[in-house]
């Protein structure tokens, strides 16, 4: 562990978030420390992969439930799910999903396909200082464009390792989030609820659960998707 510098403690965090909520017109939103937003890719995901993503989403929801954390799953929303409602305006979807992210202390989902389904939401989670936990399949390489101040974990088989991940979320419930630096690196800070310890939360999770630490490997294959209707580009008509 390097030298921890606190930029924003839980008290300062509350003031900061209230200001952001006011600027976004969302001052009525209240953060639930025992709720998670679980993003999922649906819009451009091939049909043959959707059931796989939904199955892993279901497993994640079960993991969070074991840790005593409630879940909002945008994939089950009849009003804003892109597979169920194509009439909702973009601003409606953005405002609804933003409010759901900001009403949750935790932000956690699988990153599996090139269109992750969580880009905007992940940035919201970062700026609003949520405890963000992104889950990687060890056998699938994804983009290296990943938000800072987040925790990245990997697995061989998520279903078989479910209990390990439940322990991670149970562990994380013992901290209030903040922001700061570990030496010169911007990090998600954890303020221990039962004491006065202040930690780099990502580093601490990796130390407590070393087998789950995500490690980027450029030789791992990336999932390749094929366009079914390239004629939408006028150059190919």
Chain-wise SSE layout:
Elements: E1 4-8, H1 10-23, E2 32-37, H2 47-66, E3 70-72, H3 90-102, E4 104-111, H4 119-127, E5 131-137, E6 151-155, H5 162-172, E7 175-182, E8 185-192, E9 198-200, H6 201-208
Parallel strand pairs: 2-3, 2-4, 4-5, 5-6
Antiparallel strand pairs: 1-7, 7-8, 8-9
Q: Which descriptors would you attach to this protein?
A:
237 residues, alpha/beta, 5-stranded parallel β-sheet, 4-stranded antiparallel β-sheet, 6 helices, 32% helix
Characterise the protein shown here.
By secondary structure, the chain is an alpha/beta fold. The chain has one domain (4-236): Rossmann fold (3-Layer(aba) Sandwich). The chain has 6 helices and 9 strands; from the N terminus they run E-H-E-H-E-H-E-H-E-E-H-E-E-E-H. It is globular.
Kindly summarize this structure in a few lines.
This protein has helices at 10-23, 47-66, 90-102, 119-127, 162-172, 201-208; strands at residues 4-8, 32-37, 70-72, 104-111, 131-137, 151-155, 175-182, 185-192, 198-200. 32% of the residues lie in helices and 22% in strands.
Query: What's the alpha carbon Rg, rounded to whole Å?
Result: 18 Å
Give the overall shape. Answer: globular
> What top-tier CATH class fits best?
Alpha Beta
List the strand order in the largest sheet. 3-2-4-5-6
Sequence of secondary-structure elements: EHEHEHEHEEHEEEH
- What's the rounded overall pLDDT mean? 92
Examine the coordinates and then state which fold CATH places here, giving the name of the CATH topology: Rossmann fold
Between the first and last Cα atoms, what is the distance in angstroms? 57 Å
């Amino acid at each position: 562990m390097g030298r921890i510098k606190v930029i924003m403690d839980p008290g300062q965090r509350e003031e900061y978030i209230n200001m952001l909520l006011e600027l976004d017109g969302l001052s009525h939103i209240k953060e639930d420390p025992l709720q998670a937003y679980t993003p999922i890719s649906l819009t451009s995901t091939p049909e043959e992969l959707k059931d796989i993503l939904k199955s892993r989403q279901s497993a994640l929801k079960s993991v969070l439930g074991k840790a005593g954390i409630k879940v909002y799953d945008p994939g089950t929303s009849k009003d804003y799910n892109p597979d169920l409602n194509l009439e909702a305006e973009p601003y409606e979807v953005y405002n609804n999903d933003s409010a759901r992210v900001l009403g949750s202390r935790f932000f956690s989902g699988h990153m599996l396909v090139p269109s992750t389904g969580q880009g905007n939401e992940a940035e919201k989670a970062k700026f609003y200082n949520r405890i963000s936990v992104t889950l990687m399949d060890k056998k699938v390489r994804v983009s290296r464009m990943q938000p800072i101040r987040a925790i990245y974990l990997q697995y061989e088989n998520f279903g078989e390792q479910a209990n390990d991940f439940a322990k991670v979320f149970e562990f994380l419930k013992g901290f209030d989030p903040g922001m700061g630096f570990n030496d010169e690196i911007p990090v998600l800070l954890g303020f221990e609820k039962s004491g006065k310890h202040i930690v780099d939360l990502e580093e601490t999770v990796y130390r407590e659960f070393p087998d789950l630490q995500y490690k980027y490997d450029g030789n791992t294959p990336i999932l390749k998707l094929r366009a079914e209707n390239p004629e939408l580009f006028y150059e190919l008509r």
